[in-house]
From TrEMBL, chain A:
<feature type="domain" description="ABC transporter">
    <location>
        <begin position="4"/>
        <end position="249"/>
    </location>
</feature>
<comment type="similarity">
    <text>Belongs to the ABC transporter superfamily. Ycf16 family.</text>
</comment>
<dbReference type="InterPro" id="IPR003439">
    <property type="entry name" value="ABC_transporter-like_ATP-bd"/>
</dbReference>
<dbReference type="InterPro" id="IPR027417">
    <property type="entry name" value="P-loop_NTPase"/>
</dbReference>
<protein>
    <submittedName>
        <fullName>ABC transporter ATP-binding protein</fullName>
    </submittedName>
</protein>
<keyword id="KW-0547">Nucleotide-binding</keyword>
<keyword id="KW-0067">ATP-binding</keyword>
<dbReference type="InterPro" id="IPR010230">
    <property type="entry name" value="FeS-cluster_ATPase_SufC"/>
</dbReference>
<dbReference type="GO" id="GO:0005524">
    <property type="term" value="F:ATP binding"/>
</dbReference>
From TrEMBL, chain B:
<feature type="domain" description="SUF system FeS cluster assembly SufBD core">
    <location>
        <begin position="137"/>
        <end position="364"/>
    </location>
</feature>
<protein>
    <submittedName>
        <fullName>Fe-S cluster assembly protein SufD</fullName>
    </submittedName>
</protein>
<dbReference type="Pfam" id="PF01458">
    <property type="entry name" value="SUFBD_core"/>
</dbReference>
<dbReference type="InterPro" id="IPR055346">
    <property type="entry name" value="Fe-S_cluster_assembly_SufBD"/>
</dbReference>
<dbReference type="InterPro" id="IPR037284">
    <property type="entry name" value="SUF_FeS_clus_asmbl_SufBD_sf"/>
</dbReference>
<dbReference type="InterPro" id="IPR011542">
    <property type="entry name" value="SUF_FeS_clus_asmbl_SufD"/>
</dbReference>
<dbReference type="InterPro" id="IPR000825">
    <property type="entry name" value="SUF_FeS_clus_asmbl_SufBD_core"/>
</dbReference>
<comment type="similarity">
    <text>Belongs to the iron-sulfur cluster assembly SufBD family.</text>
</comment>
Length: 254, 393
């Protein structure tokens, strides 16, 4: 069973006047089949955690370990991490001019699966996945994320999630910027992947809204660059009522 | 300005659309077109038509100091049966009919060449194989003139390949009879030191179609000036261009489509990728719709993809319209970057870095390459693009 283990992770970024530590000792274990929600205020370091796991070059790991099934993730390049089974749905997906969605998806699937998918079944697979996510077929010929609305970008991320079938999926604010209909469609996509029981999901969010559609097994409160409280789904209800104030004002553990 | 508002226009970076009573395309030049080099002052670099070009790298082509070496440039022509290939003297009546030199180097080339090449496809002859012209430099300096003439309803594909090392100034004339169809692919695959300056003049006959494909990879300095005008109504011109500008290279493409005849069409698409320090691409797209050219339909576009820091693009589309009675006129120019965030995104989907870069560049050029319509050239270009990318890593 695939397991992502994050131990005492410390991460810095270069800012104008020097180096700033953003992650200050993150500990978390995500197992295949589990869903963890990470909730926290703006600027608490949630995206930094997501990018660091994926290997974004802007973030420097200064301490701690990350392993996937015992393999050292931090030693891997960005593409190796993806091929090892890590997937990051980005808060702000990037536009890639000149590359069509269909070409992108196929190249990516070929890289992840280790061989080019058979054309016949692939075309069908993509078409059906797009239909389920209410993505118009014309998007296949558009350039990746170019001119997509916020909601379209997010659905495109989940399309990739469905096609690439990772072991661990990190979803960074996939819910933000979505109206209720889009939120439902996207959540259903995530749930389809979860129902296979083969993916561990790390759902990063600012709001509890998405947790009505995607039920987490564990909820973690993230503040000041670390997890400050963990609990079950009921913790989300508490956050819904009380907000993050208790955590940001130096209450629990800051 | 009333006419201008009815014109569909794409996005513009540096360009302009002028609705003018009189053309400024001509008045922007330092002298009117002429066959005589003495009619042009020696450029000093601030003139409109020279301001992007590093004169010191022209090896004297612009100031009369470049002396022809007599050898060091080989031209081999392979033509299918039915095609006439001649070498003629300066006084041959077919020379200079398609257009007049527009700047000092074109006039220098016209004033200095000794023998010209003339390739003729007789009327109604439809070739199934391309005419291939191999221009290979062996370190020489040369002035050249080439004419390619198609009789009425003739159809041909011409591939002109430039390789090796040379300092070359040339004029190439394309004469299309009524209803003729000519595709010319000019590949500049020079070695690193070559300097190549040329004016291409196409005179498109009534109902004829002309397709020019300019592909520039090599050279230290390449400056090409494809120009089109029409000899009768119903003519069509498609000007496609692809360049891959590397470290230190200067590649300049200046186009003029002169809609001097009613009911003609033109479509210009140039795309370039740049990588490395001091890679410099210049694209000037002049389209002039003269007052008498009603029913004109024209579109021009230039797109650039900058792959690394240190490269520079100057892109100036310029559309001048002297009549409102047209079908359509538009232009677009855009320069985009392949940046670290795009690379990260593709890699985060399992795609290795070199493949990610290839994906982006191939994707960028793909549509254009498919429009060329000459199979072996398309294949060769894709291979060449990959080679260019590999050289960069
Ligand atoms: N590349 C960067 N350069 C400079 N500062 C950064 C960078 N990335 C993150 N930071 C800073 O680190 C802190 C955490 O940012 P991060 O984006 O991880 O927060 P977040 O929890 O995802 O916030 P949000 O809810 O707004 O998405 C912020 O103060 C942010 O300004
Ligand atoms: Mg964030």
């Amino acid at each position: 069973m695939a397991t992502l283990e994050i131990r005492d992770l410390h991460v810095t970024v270069e800012v104008e006047n020097g180096t700033k530590e953003i992650l200050k000792g993150v500990d978390l274990t995500v197992k295949q089949g589990e869903t963890h929600a990470i909730m926290g205020p703006n600027g608490s370091g949630k995206s930094t955690l997501a990018y660091s796991l994926a290997g974004h070059p802007k973030y420097t790991i200064t301490g701690g370990t990350v392993t996937l099934d015992g393999e050292d993730v931090l030693e891997m390049s960005v593409d190796e991490r993806a091929r090892a089974g890590l997937f990051l749905a980005m808060q702000y997906p990037v536009e890639v001019p000149g590359v069509s969605v269909s070409n992108f998806l196929r190249t990516s699937a070929t890289a992840i699966r280790g061989e080019a998918p058979k054309l016949r079944t692939w075309v069908k697979e993509v078409k059906e996945a797009m239909e389920r996510l209410n993505i118009d077929p014309s998007f296949a010929e558009r350039n990746v994320n170019e001119g997509f609305s916020g909601g379209e970008k997010k659905r495109h991320e989940i399309l990739q999630l469905e096609l690439l079938k990772p072991k661990v999926a990190v979803l960074d604010e996939t819910d933000s910027g979505l109206d209720v209909d889009a939120l439902r469609v996207v959540s259903e996509g995530v749930n389809r992947v979860r129902e296979t029981g083969e993916v561990g999901t790390l759902l990063i969010t600012h709001y509890t809204r998405i947790l009505r559609y995607i039920k987490p097994d564990h909820v973690h409160v993230f503040s000041g660059g670390r997890i400050v409280e963990s609990g079950g789904a009921e913790l989300a209800d508490k956050l819904e009522e009380e907000g993050y104030e208790a955590y940001t004002k130096g209450g629990v553990s800051a | 300005m009333a006419e201008a508002q009815t014109i569909p226009v794409g996005s513009t970076t540096a360009g302009q659309i002028a609705v003018a009573a009189e053309s400024t395309v001509a008045t922007r030049m330092s002298a009117p077109p002429s066959f005589d080099v003495a009619d042009f002052p020696v450029p000093h670099g601030r003139e409109e038509e020279w301001r992007f070009t590093p004169l010191e790298r022209l090896r004297g082509l612009h100031d009369g100091t470049a002396v022809a070496t007599g050898e060091g440039l080989k031209v081999e022509i392979q033509a299918p049966e039915g095609v006439t290939v001649e070498t003629v003297g300066r006084d041959d009546a077919r020379l200079g009919k398609a257009g007049t030199p527009a700047d000092r180097i074109a006039a220098q080339a016209y004033s200095a060449f000794e023998k010209a090449g003339v390739v003729t496809v007789p009327k109604e002859t439809v070739l199934t194989e391309p005419i291939r012209i191999a221009v290979h430099g062996e370190g020489g300096t040369a002035y050249a003139h080439q004419v390619i003439e198609l009789g009425a309803f003739a159809e041909a594909v011409v591939v002109i390949d430039h390789t090796g090392d040379a300092v070359l100034a040339a004029n190439v004339d394309y004469l299309l009879g009524d209803g003729a169809k000519l595709t010319v692919v000019s590949v500049q695959d020079w070695d690193d030191k070559a300097v190549h300056v040329a004016q291409h003049n196409a005179l498109v006959g009534r109902d004829a179609s002309f397709k020019s494909v300019v592909v520039t990879f090599g050279g230290d300095l390449v400056r090409l000036h494809p120009r089109v005008s029409y000899a009768g109504t119903g003519g069509e011109a498609e000007l496609l261009g692809l360049y891959f500008t590397d470290k230190g290279q200067h590649q300049e493409h200046r186009l003029l489509v002169d809609h001097n005849t009613p009911h003609c069409k033109s479509n210009v698409v140039y795309k370039g990728a740049l990588q490395g320090d001091d890679a410099h691409a210049v694209w000037i797209g002049d389209v002039l719709i003269e007052a008498k050219a009603e029913g004109t339909d024209t579109y021009e576009m230039n797109r650039n993809l900058v792959l690394t820091d240190g490269a520079r693009v100057d892109s100036v589309p310029n559309l001048e319209i002297e009549t409102g009675e047209i079908v359509g006129a538009g232009h677009a120019s855009a320069t985009g970057r392949f940046d670290d965030e795009q690379l990260f995104y593709l890699m985060a989907r399992g795609i290795p870095a070199d493949e990610a870069r290839r994906l982006v560049v191939r994707g960028f050029f793909a549509e254009l390459v498919q429009q060329i319509g000459v199979d072996d050239i398309e294949q060769r270009l894709l291979v060449k693009i990959d080679e260019e990318l590999e050289a960069s890593v």
